[in-house]
């Protein structure tokens, strides 16, 4: 596979990351690791970049009026997680997150929150070796998206075992990962900001 130099795409992602205020020291460490990686690796978006890994885009799909978060039961990892995954040529974590949200949920209408597009959270996590891929990191850039939970859902059987909307506290418990508490606190703040 030919490596495509992505200087402009790198610069756009670095600008988004520069505007993101980390919630705590853990997220600050993730943010610094991702910024350093993007600044030095032109192939940062390619899923075949394994040292230390590659950029992924995630979407936390929120129904802010009802305080519900959509999760999918990830088939390969056997865990409840937000939608998200690998870049498919977008070289733009926000576009990746939106595409993955649509593909993995089947939702007909998903929107960006009002105002300028912002990063919700960043996280670096280990992915175990699988088939012909070595263990590596996902340097995950995460966004919040809005959707009405009354819309029908369609499970992508290749990606998910199930899809379900959960109240935020239950979603945090279902995700059961270190970054879940941080992300759910941010989502609660977004919900309260849309009240009224």
Q: What would you say about this model in short?
A:
The chain has five helices and seven strands; from the N terminus they run ααββββαβββαα. It is of the alpha+beta class and about 200 residues long.
Structural summary, described in words:
- This protein has 196 residues and is of the alpha+beta class.
- The protein has a single domain, classed as Nucleoside Triphosphate Pyrophosphohydrolase (Alpha-Beta Complex), CATH 3.90.79.10.
- The chain is built from five helices and seven strands; from the N terminus they run ααββββαβββαα.
- The protein has helices at residues 7-18, 25-40, 93-105, 168-175, 178-194, and strands at residues 53-63, 68-74, 79-81, 83-86, 121-127, 136-146, 160-167.
- Strands 1, 2, 3, 4, 5, 6 and 7 form a seven-stranded mixed sheet that branches.
- A hairpin with a 4-residue loop joins β1 and β2 (68-74).
């Amino acid at each position: 596979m030919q490596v495509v130099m992505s200087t402009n795409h790198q610069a756009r992602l670095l600008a988004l990351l520069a505007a993101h205020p980390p919630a705590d020291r853990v997220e600050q460490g993730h943010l610094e690791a991702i910024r350093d990686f993007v600044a030095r690796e032109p192939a940062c978006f390619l899923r075949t970049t394994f040292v230390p890994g590659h950029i992924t885009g995630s979407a936390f799909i929120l129904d802010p009026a009802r305080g519900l978060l959509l999760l999918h039961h990830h088939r390969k990892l056997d865990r409840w997680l937000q939608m998200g995954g690998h870049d498919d040529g977008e070289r733009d974590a926000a576009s990746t997150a939106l595409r993955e949200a649509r593909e993995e949920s089947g939702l007909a209408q998903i929107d960006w929150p009002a105002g300028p597009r912002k990063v919700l959270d960043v996280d670096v996590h280990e992915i175990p070796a699988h088939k012909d891929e070595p263990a590596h990191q996902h340097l995950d850039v995460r966004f919040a998206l809005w959707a009405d939970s009354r819309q029908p859902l369609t499970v992508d059987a290749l990606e998910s075992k199930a899809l379900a909307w959960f109240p935020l506290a239950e979603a945090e418990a279902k995700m059961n990962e270190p970054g879940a508490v941080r992300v759910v606190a941010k989502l609660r703040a977004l919900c309260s900001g849309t009240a009224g």
